[in-house]
Amino acid sequence: DNSSELIPKCRTCRRQARERSGGGDHHEGLSSDEELTPTEVDEFQRSKDNVLEDSRKIFEDVHADFCDIRKILLKFQEWKEKFPDSYCDAYISFCLPKLLNPLIRVQLISWNPLEQNFTELEEMPWFRAIEEFSDAENVSESK
Question: Using CA atoms, how far apart are residues 126 and 103, in angstroms rounded to an integer?
Answer without folding.
Answer: 9
